[in-house]
């Protein structure tokens, strides 16, 4: 059980409801050890297990992990197919544990690009965990923020074509209804491991007001200490959402 005290869980007073992570640095982690890049991806799966457990302990509601971007198909074919195999076997291996821990798993991204077998396994894993009420774990696979916005635009255009919508009715609220995970809160905290400071096409719409946190730690090394440092950094952020600092502070005070 987490040690809750007057200052909140593990002494933290503000916890993100939704954390989004770009799990970067697997290849470099392996190369530093004289291993093939693929060994880094395998080690990365253990870090995923840790992160899921930590989110459960801290009471985070949603964790979204960027596992494979719509641009990662450009990598050498051998690496892409290893990543697909790893995804396939991890889904099989981890689903029981996730289910035991009351985690609801969902995969976001263009899944029709995957093999039929992988699509079936994704579907099965989602079905098995669908009724769980704990952490929502989203794995972004063949995901891109631009893809998400594009597929939303296509759905909206189709409604206009059939006469069910007019262009004047399109506003931010309507568009967001067609995006992935529109029913969940936007990410509060974005973490990117591996030292790069960029979004790499992750959550372009939903990250409009997300707090960004970058760490040099490579993804396989992202442990409980690194996780807690990211949460510590989140404590000192003042989220203004366009308002003045004074307004933001008086509203937080009311909570
Ligand atoms: C992130 O690690 C995992 C994927 C993109 C699948 P990388 O493979 O990008 O690792 P680096 O950035 O080359 O070290
Ligand atoms: C972003 O990492 C995607 C994932 C972690 C899945 P990349 O390694 O693909 O990003 P770039 O190419 O360095 O921007
Ligand atoms: Mg990378």
Write a brief caption for the model.
This protein is of the alpha/beta class.
Explain the overall architecture.
There is one protein chain. The chain is α/β, with parallel strands linked by helices and 255 residues long. The longest helix has 24 residues, at 77-100. The chain has one domain (4-144, 186-251): Decaprenyl diphosphate synthase-like (Undecaprenyl pyrophosphate synthetase, 3-Layer(aba) Sandwich), CATH 3.40.1180.10. α2 runs parallel beside α3 (77-100) and α3 packs parallel to α4. The chain is 44% helix and 15% strand. The protein starts with a strand and ends with a helix. Strands 5-6-4-3-7-8 form a 6-stranded parallel β-sheet, with helices on both faces. It binds 3-methylbut-3-enyl trihydrogen diphosphate (2 copies) and magnesium ion. One 3-methylbut-3-enyl trihydrogen diphosphate binds next to β4.
In which range does the helix fraction lie? 40-55%
Task: Give the DSSP E fraction (strand runs of 2 or more residues).
Answer: 5-15%
Radius of gyration: 19 Å
Fourth CATH level, the homologous superfamily? Decaprenyl diphosphate synthase-like
> Structural class of the secondary elements?
alpha/beta
Shape: globular
| Top CATH class | Alpha Beta
Give the strand line-up of the largest sheet: 5-6-4-3-7-8
- What string, H for helix and E for strand, traces the elements in order? EEEHHEHEHEHHEEHH
The pLDDT mean sits at: 95
